[in-house]
Amino acid sequence: MTTVNAYASPSATEDLVPTTIERRDVGPHDVLIEIKYAGICHSDIHTVRGDWGPQSYPLVPGHEIAGIVTEIGSAVTKHAVGDRVGVGCMVNSCGECANCQKGDEQYCLKGMTGTYGAVDRDGTVTQGGYSTHVVVTEDFVVTIPEGIELDVAAPLLCAGITTYSPLRRWGAGPGKKVAVVGLGGLGHMAVKLASAMGADVTVLSQSLKKQEDGLRLGANSYYATSDPGTFEQLAGSFDLIINTVSASIDISSYLQLLSLDGALVNVGAPAEPLPVNAFALIGGRRSFAGSMIGGIPETQEMLNFCAEHGLGAEIEVIPADKINEAYERVLASDVRYRFVIDTATL
Length: 346
Ligand code: NAP
Ligand code: ZN
Hints:
Layout: E1 2-8, E2 17-23, E3 30-39, H1 42-48, E4 65-72, E5 84-87, E6 90-92, H2 98-101, E7 113-114, E8 133-137, E9 142-143, H3 150-153, H4 159-169, E10 177-181, H5 185-196, E11 200-205, H6 211-217, E12 221-224, H7 228-233, E13 238-243, H8 251-255, E14 258-266, H9 278-282, E15 287-290, H10 296-309, E16 315-318, H11 323-331, E17 338-342
Parallel strand pairs: 10-11, 10-13, 11-12, 13-14, 14-15, 16-17
Antiparallel strand pairs: 1-2, 3-4, 3-8, 3-17, 4-5, 5-9, 6-7
Bound molecules: NADP nicotinamide-adenine-dinucleotide phosphate and zinc ion.
NADP nicotinamide-adenine-dinucleotide phosphate binds next to α1, α4 and α5.
């Protein structure tokens, strides 16, 4: 066991505080990573505040991890000391079920092991990336290609893959009209990725405050959802809508923006239900779907795609003592577009 510095949430109602945690010894299939940067995902906030149910505290969040391999186990073949690597939202799965076999480990039929707040194989609770080091089995460690700096790469491990996966599955590309609801961490990556895939991209944000940024990130159009005229003007327009909003919104009005056979894919994960009016679906043979992160092979594919297209996240690097402030700013939709912790400050 090694003791490492970290930042942890002591309870659902208190600020995160500096602490130390234990990392397991490097086993034959493990990789020890010196974490350089860890992104702050809205899911970290949902989790530590108990939005998704009770947690075990103290809890170290963080599932957007970028760092360098500093030690490998005797049987490791995929990574070497010095490699630039990333870890996302999961650190293990059964590896044997139909979904794992397909490379969809996030849908493991026995339940994947989350990067933090999950019970690991050894019975301990996993602790995440707001720390200086982590030990992960090599199969859940991906390679960050040369050409993507580690700080802008970190958010790709969750925000990147969570938007890349549904964009690919629902065929974002030339000739497709894609709308992205919410221009936060996930939303801004959805815009960059869909644009790089060749789709015509529209941002649907609460206001026009970030319009200039949205267009710079690759959107072709930008509308404010606070303006009711937006919903009239854009009715029946989109082949695909990716909803990244962290709160419950009126899904039925967004479904009306889909063209015939269009799909609205929800990646936002609010605690509250998202009620749907059946007529908004049946009226245009529309689909309402969901998607959770992406599998390990697809995560590597996404990183390679980002390297090829020169994509990374738009980030604000912060020292550890600004984590609580950053949480408040994320909750206020005041993030451009991902906070990333410099773990050297832990
Ligand atoms: P974020 O950076 O806070 O972005 C969410 C954006 O949603 C905000 O920037 C804001 O954009 C919009 N928004 C927030 N509150 C709103 C409200 N009340 N009404 C309308 N729009 C609102 O969060 P994130 O890190 O991108 O995560 C977004 C959601 O995805 C969270 O629920 C997170 O847990 C979930 N998530 C899911 C997966 C998955 O696998 N499915 C993975 C990661 C995260 P505008 O200012 O542009 O309106
Ligand atoms: Zn996340």
